Amino acid sequence: MTNPDVISHSQAASVDNPFPPAARTIPIGRVPFLRLASVELRKQVDTRAGVWLLVTIAIISAGLITLPLVTGTADGLTFTNFVSAASSGQLFLLPLIGVMAATSEWSARTALTTFTLEPRRTRVNLAKLASASYLGMVLMVVTLAVAAVFNLIGIVWLDTGGSWEIDRPIILGTAFALILLVAQGIAFGLAFLSTPVAIVAYLGLPTVWSILSFAIEPLSGPAEWLDMTNTLGTLMSGLMTADAWAKLLVSVLVWIGIPLSIGLWRTARREP
Amino acid sequence: MITATNLTKRYRNSIAVDDVSFSAEPGRITGFLGPNGAGKSTTMRMLVGLATPTSGSSSVLGVPFHSLENPGRHVGVLLDAGAQHPGRTGRESLALSAQLMGMPDGRADEVLEIVGLTAKEGGGRIRGYSLGMRQRLGLASALLGDPAVLILDEPSNGLDPAGIRWMRGVLTSFAASGGTVLLSSHLLLEVEAVADDLVIIGRGKVLAKGSAAELLATKGTSVRSLDDDALSRALTIAGFDVTRVSDGLSTSAPVADVGRLALEAAIVVIDLHPASNAGLEELFFSMTAQHGREDVPA
């Protein structure tokens, strides 16, 4: 027993008693949903994987937003175009944060802690949905700010038209699409409960479906309703009609509603 | 206060926990003892709502676990020290739980200090932690909400002997402050050293329960004197069983009777004590021998 470090541990415990009788004084309150959601948000960005994914998104967005400055024609350099350019990387990568938010509870087995601190598991999953959507919105706001700076650069140095016109249907549609894709990421993560399987399924299944429906003639009709790539494309181009909203709703029910239901059911039953 | 009532957990073709009932009282450490695969972990998981019992029920502080508001503030749980995100720092994983429970900001550092992890260790990623450090972090996490009840599954796993002694100190002072401790182990000596009450389980069934003193009480006395032959005769005449052992006599007589007989016979006693306590180990092995398992699923 010459390890001084260990000996100091045992002394510390006996010298000052960390549990004085009747010291439980901090009042016990319920856990509000907003607090649960903010903890879930923190969990999405406090791991190395989360940080790197955000850094990657920032780098890719920066690259994509610069592209119009280099290649675009002068009249293409508008605020709305900058926003669209920057968002495409986020639309692709941000859902992976959703996937990881759902799967890491099981792959890192933190579900053990998470569900003993909040036994209502569906509430935890809803907090994940809310916080990941919020993260998407924060990114959108940052994108809008950066796009504004780039547009200013275009106006001042490149002498472009630099229209400040905000094409609201496009920007709102893009923001909404981002939320839907993040929700899809979480839904797939919850349904598969394994990071690699969920990512492959999230990226692969819709693509396979798109290819199939393109190649096989009889599928092209249903595909208008069931292909989220199509329906989100319409949403992001700001060309929504009543018919397009109905198609979006159906595709969302299939690609988000079904996996999310499976995921909530699996989470509720699974023993961590 | 923890109560389990007829808890049963059946998996597809096996029964993991079979009609288990016991209670753990405040101010006491209850040792939950059994060989690997006996159903200790499954029982604890049911107590904290991670597994649903096939039948039976349990309560913590008088209510089912899932009815507790902010359960982390009532019950500290350590089920598996390995179940922590390797990419987070120890301090961050504590801070997350503290935030969720509504504990003040400094609480993570406080519990790090209680469990003897330095600020530098707390700032390191869990990926690099030794098993002992993870165990300390797990205990820190259990203590975080300043709970009234601790439920700990094999908390001494991976701790060095000094660490184990330190853990005993922490649990003893926690119980002394009025807290309830339920602590599982497959190591008898470890539980014997710290538990006030015992629940012994094998193959899913409770084999024995009661206060440690009761379960460990042994009848009989060991005695050595300057004239063992005379003492042996005196004991036999008084109607007690006597056997010669290498270092004196072993008898069924209580200590006081042996002393009185020796005094009456004017025999000088040089060693007199209750029969050496073969202790929990013997009890444990005798009760679980037929339940010993080689093929323990993880």
UniProtKB/TrEMBL annotation, chain A:
Task: Indicate whether Transmembrane helix appears among the record's keywords.
Answer: yes
Any keyword Transmembrane? yes
Per its UniProt entry, which superkingdom is the organism in?
Answer: Bacteria
Which keywords appear in this protein's UniProt record, sorted alphabetically? Membrane, Transmembrane, Transmembrane helix
Q: Which residues cross the membrane?
A: 51-71, 91-112, 133-158, 170-192, 199-216, 244-265
Query: By what name is this protein known?
Result: ABC transporter permease
From TrEMBL, chain B:
Q: Name one Pfam family in it.
A: ABC_tran
Q: Which residues form the ABC transporter domain?
A: 2-228
Q: Which SUPFAM superfamilies match?
A: P-loop containing nucleoside triphosphate hydrolases
Going by the entry's taxonomy, the superkingdom of the source organism is recorded as Bacteria
Does the record carry ATP-binding as a key word?
yes
Q: Supply the alphabetized keyword list.
A: ATP-binding, Nucleotide-binding, Transport
The entry lists its GO molecular-function terms as:
ATP binding; ATP hydrolysis activity
Q: Give the matching SMART domains.
A: AAA
InterPro entries listed in its UniProt record? AAA+_ATPase (IPR003593), ABC_transporter-like_ATP-bd (IPR003439), ABC_transporter-like_CS (IPR017871), P-loop_NTPase (IPR027417)
Question: Which family does this protein fall into?
Answer: Belongs to the ABC transporter superfamily.
Q: Identify this protein by name.
A: ATP-binding cassette domain-containing protein
